[in-house]
Amino acid sequence: MNTKTTLRITYREALKHGLREALINDDMVFLMGEDVGRYGGAFAVSKGFLEEFGEDRIMDVPLSESGFVGAGIGAALGGMRPIVEVMTVNFSLLALDQIINNASTLLHMSGGQINVPVVIRMNSGIGNQLAAQHSHSWEPFYAHVPGLKVVSVGTHEDARGMLLTALESPDPVIIFEYTSLLNMESEIPLDSGAMDIDKAKVRREGKDVSIITYGPGVYKALAAAEELNLSGIDAEVVDLRVLNPIDNETILTSVAKTHRVLIVEEAWRSVSISSEIISRIMEHAFFDLDAPVQRLCGVEVPIPYPKHLEDASIPQKEDIVNSILNMVQYD
Amino acid sequence: MIEFKMPSLGADMEDGTLVEWRVKSGEAVKRGDIIADVDTQKGLIEIEVFEEGTVDRLVVKEGEKVPVGTVMATIIPIGALESSRKESVQVKAVSEVKQKAKTQITTEPAKQPLKEGSIVSHKHLKISPLAKRMAVEKGIDLTTIKGSGPEGSIVKKDIELAAKTKEESHMEASEEKKEIASRGIRDAIAMAMSRSNREIPHFYLETRIDISKALEWLKETNKERELKDRLLSVVLLIKATARAIKEVPVVNAYWENGLQLKDVINIGFAVSLRKGGVVIPAIHDADQKSPAELMTLLKDLIPRARALKLRSSELSESTITLTNVGEGNVDKVFGVIYPPQVAIIGFGNIVEEAWAENGAISARPVIHVTLAADHRAIDGYLAGRFLTALKHHLQNPETL
Fold first, then answer.
1. Given 3.40.50.10490, 1.20.950.20, 2.60.40.10, 4.10.320.10, which CATH number is that of B124-168?
2. Contact yes or no for A287 and B130 at CB 8 A
3. Helices (H), chain A
4. Residue B240 reports pLDDT greater than 70
5. Which end of chain A is more exposed for a tag (fewer CB within 10 A), N or C?
6. Taking residues B245-263, what's their average pLDDT?
7. What is the complex's ipTM, to 2 decimals?
8. Is B130 on the interface with A (CB under 8 A)?
């Protein structure tokens, strides 16, 4: 007898499952974006949806980010629950005005009368040889803006479940999904469903050092932690998940436990999510630290096209292992 | 504003380490209050304050070792209203004094070898915030720890190790501390006695005293007393000495830039320590205490002296010293004066001797009393008068 409780699934399929469930659950939910319909999505996440849900709910839009993101915001104001897919974060710069000046501010500008329940999904990250202009990590940009909830999908379960919760938010939510993870397989519980979008999560318990990360850093950190375990180093992995507002409690609890921190992120180093995390640790957990906080971030260069240089421009598993070995060498 | 300074607890004391403040800033103090514990060569001493007022600032930090005379705290005298301007001037002066004291220490490395930790260091100590917090919680002295972390910093592991060591050796440590203290006393005695013999032109007188009347009197009075209240002959020696001092006050003085007679009679009573060494706690106002009161006082004072738990006033305010060889076979002792005092009285053991009196010889209990005196301060005539007075009082115990 084989009662399977988990499902082996790719990150892409997990996203698709979540999206489909959202469309089934609520008629007011619709998907709009470039190539989401006839093409089946630039990353094939919405493949077959046009046939299943029809043109009204799976809407192809022109190549005009400012225009269709604005349309999505308008639909949200009109009572719909739009899911706007901006193909990649790189193009979202064209929609920044709509997102920052409309989506994030209207609640405030209207004196609380108008909220904007729009969900904007973007593919992000580095690692597919897309060269400098198409390899941006703009999480820090969006996390900077008050009024936006910003989440980062670093695991299959979150790929499956974060969208569902985001659609319940009365205010705009930006979801970062990662191109480099799309084909990656993992097990998720069969009954996997909606996941919270409030808290950071400890993905692996450990006592010697905390690796705080998000997005593609999560699986890299977990792999590094397993390798470190062979050397007797017990690393804890904290997945931030929510980049705005940041969940202090989970971070500080981990710091109080391990007393040493390595932050891993793909975005450029200066003025980044890691900068913010370090500040918060200094503000709230200074006397829990037994060593200076360390971080591994994207190298501050335009991300190169050649594979080996692209790999070298962001933190890899080996870098995490080496950094931690370096941090604990005095133990 | 009153400056409370590191007191000198004897000519041999150069510095002291503040172990603990017993008062807080803003606390009211009055004469005789113990305001701090200071570690000296003579053990852990409770330091008293002699003014009445409110503690203003605690200048010296716990654990800090400072020379005698360093301002440790400032006290606002009772009733005084300090203007803020005056106060800031005061504070500045205080910090200058402190600065001077620091410089003094740091520029005398030869006198302070290998004791970097006890000196206020201007160098920043590399220690992780966690380790620092833990050190405070566990009471670990950071200056004794060698860091094993990055760039030689002190990290959690080092504190844990130190805490473990501390716990394990807790019993040993207290023993060790006493040992070190008694070794310190050796040095202190060496310094004071060398100075005495170098600087003080001693001369010695001796007399024998028939002590039979005194012993008889003791026997009678003890009959009426509970066992625990019985008097020992030593209280009569002390009391008779105090009386004799009243008659010949020149022996009760300091020689510091000339002779300074003392108004109070605080007899330093030499107490030998079991591990070697001597401490000399003062019996304050000995002339005003009855033999019974002196007995009670000694019962408290001697055990505390042996445990090196004396108060600052007890260590610093003797005006003359009395040494008593006590029981045994030694019948005379010639002392070395404890500077800046000018005299030391030595009592030998009570022995039975042939005694000629009124043309007849009989056996009497006799005590040999010596006086070592500073010839800069005292001459033979007055020294002789002192011993004569002492003899007179010991032979009339009922008047003591």
1. 4.10.320.10
2. yes
3. 11-25, 49-53, 65-77, 96, 106-109, 139-143, 156-166, 217-230, 248-258, 273-285, 307-313, 317-327
4. yes
5. N
6. 91
7. 0.71
8. yes
